[in-house]
Request: fold
Amino acid sequence: TTRTPEFLGLENNGVFLPESDSMTDVIIGVLDTGVWPESKSFRDTGLGPVPNGWRGVCQLNSSSCNRKLIGARFFSMGYEATLGPIDASKESKSPRDDDGHGTHTSSTAGGSVVEDASLFGYATGTARGMATRARVAVYKVCWIGGCFSSDILAGMEKAIEDGVNVISMSLGGGTSDYHRDSVAIGAFTAMEKGILVSCSAGNSGPSEYTLSNVAPWITTVGAGTLDRDFPAYVSLGNGKNFSGVSLYSGKPLPEDKLVSFIYAGNATNATNGNLCMTGTLLPEVVTGKIVLCDRGINARVQKGEVVKEAGGVGMVLVNTAANGEELVADAHLLPTAAVGQKAGEIIKEYLLTESNPSASIIFGSTKVGIQPSPVVAAFSSRGPNSITPEVLKPDLIAPGVNILAGWSGAVGPTGLTVDNRRSEFNIISGTSMSCPHISGLAALIKSVHPEWSPAAIRSALMTTAYTVYKTGEKLQDISTGKPSTAFDHGAGHVDPASAIDPGLVYDITADDYLNFLCALNYSAPQIYKLAKRNFTCEANKKFSVTDLNYPSFAVVLQTAQSGGGSSGGGSTVVKYTRTLTNVGSPATYKASVSPAAESVKITVEPDSLIFSEKNEKKTYTVSFTANSMPSGTNLFTRLEWSDGKHIVGSPIALSWT
Amino acid sequence: STTTEIPKQTYIVHMAKSEKPPSYETHSHWYDSSLKSVSDSATTLYTYNTIIHGFSTRLTPKQAQSLESLPGILSVLPELRYQLH
Reply:
C-alpha cells in the first residue's frame, strides 16, 4: 500500500519502523482469491531461506513461488461439487488470482517494497505491505461463484498444518452460533496452535447488528479512511460547483464546454432506472450526455459501464442516506465523479427544475493531509455483537477506504469483463482491505514478541488504539458526521508503534475460551466441535461471559421492567473481572474511567496495580452501577490504566435492553 | 413411473473422534463406512483431521438426516457460502 505506512507511523520521512530479524520467520497465510505471483509485491529481494519447519507447497509453477511467496494452494472441490466444473476460460483452477482481491489483501499484509507504485498515476508512492519481511502463503478458497465453507475449512486446515503464524481472512457470511460457523470453528483450532486469525468485520454498515466474524478468538476488523483523497469537481450550468472523488484516468471531458446533463430516473422506462441497472437506460435519451445515477443495488463501476453502453459520456454517482458523505473512489470506464448525499440532493434539484441542465466534470490529482482522518467508513459493519452482546465487536479499525495495493494481471481495475486496462496496482475499499492491515501488523508484533499468544497480540493492538484525533476531538463516523462509538470503531484505530510496547496485555488461553462457552451453556458436543476434545464444564463452578479476559467491555443491562442483575434502589450492579499481564518493566499502574453519565457509576477495585516483574499477573474488578434507562439506550466511555508511560485503554459500551 | 432426482447439497459432517469403534482400522474407514450406510454413491469431498474431525460430502436432506442419527456423528451441517468483503 502507499500512504498507509506513513499514516500508521510505520514510516517517517522514508525511515521504516524497524522490523526485527525474526520478522523473516513469520508467515502470513491469506485465504482469498489466490495470488498474482508476478506482482512486484512478491519479489523476494533480501530475504533469506524459507523458515525451518515450513510444510507448505507451491501449486503454481515452482518458479512462481520464492522466498517471499512461499506457498500457494487452491481448494475447489466444494465449489465444483455445487456449481459444476470450473470453466478454465473464466477462472484458473490453480492458486492464480483471476479476481485481484487476493493479490490486494496478501500484498497489503506482507508485500515487499515497490517504488513508483500507482493506479494510472493516482496514489503514487512507494508501496509496501505492513510486514515487508514476513513470508506470505496464499490459500485460494474463493471463486467467481463465492467462497464455500467446505473449501474454507480445507484451506484453514492446510494453513495450520503448513505452519503459518497469522491467518488473514477478508470474507464472511451471515451470523451463526460459533459451533455452526466454519470460520469460527477453524479459527478456534488456529488460536489453540498460537495462530492469530484476523477477519474483516463486514461491509453492511452503517446499520447496527451487522457484524460478521464475531467469535472472541477472532480479531474482527472494521474500516476507516486515510488522510488521502482523489478529488473531482462537478460544475453545473448554473455556476455552482461540487466536490467529489474519482479515479478516472482516460480522455477527459472538454474543460471549456458544458455537456447536457440528465437524471437516470428520467432516462428510463424502468422503475429502478435511477440506479443505472443493466439495460435500463434509454440510449436515445442518454447519448452524448452526462448521467446522474443513484448508488445502490448494483456495483458502482457497473453503473458507469451501463451509462457508457447507453451512449453517455460521463456519470455523476450520488450517495444515498445509506452512504451519507462517504466518497469511495473507483477507476470508472468513463469520466465520473462520485459525490455525497448532500451535494447529490442539490444537483438532483437542479436537474429536476432546470429546463436544459448541463454540467462538466473536472479531475484533480491525489491529495494527502485530508482532515479529519481517520473517520469510520459508512460501509464498515457495526455492533452490537448479535451472537454474544457481552463481547464488544468490532475489535478495532484500520485503513480500508481507497487503499492501493497489488492487483491481478488477469483483470482490469474495475473487475468488469469489458475493462481491458491493466495495472499492477489497484485502489479499492472494504473491510477486506482493513483486515490484512491488521494481519500484517500482527505479524510485525509476533516477530518482536514471538512468545505472545494471539490474544496478547490482539490486546496490544486494541489497548493502544486511539479514539481521539491529535486535536483531542473524538473519532468521527462519516455516515453521521458525528463522533463514532465503540460499536463503530471498537477499541479505536490501530497505532502500531504503540502496540509493539503496550505495557500490559489481557491474555486469554484456550481453556478460558472453553469456560466462556460453558457460560454460554454450550453442550458437550457443541464444545467438542470447536475444541476437538472432550471438555467438561465443572458442575459446581459459576461461569460468566463477563469473566472472559477481553480487552474491552460490553455491559448489557436490563430495563427496570424486566429486572436482571442485582438490583437495589432501582439500580443494577454488574461486575466484570479482568487480569492484566505485565509485558514491560516493573511499574505501578493507576486506573481512570471517564464518566459515562450521571446515572452510571463505574468503580475499579483495586484502582492501582503494582507489577514488580515481567509476566506478573494482577486481577481487578469493574463494577457498573446503573439506573434503569429506556431499552435501546447506549452509553460509551473508556477505562485506562497508566504508569505514566503507557496507556492501556479499554472501551466500555453500556446497553440497555 | 418417473424418477425425480432429489437435489443434493454439500454438508460438513462433524464426528466424535474418540467414539470410533475399534473394528475400524482408521478414522477414514469409519467415516467412509458411516457415509456408505446412508448413500452408496456419496463420496467425501474433503476429510478434515486438524480443524474438525470429520468430512464434507454431497447428500440429499433425507440422507443427511439419517447420517446425523448414526453413532459418533456430532452434527451434519449444510455448507454455507461466504462472500468477500
Q: What stands out?
A: The longest helix of chain B spans residues 27-36. Chain B touches chain A through 27 residues (CB under 8 Å).
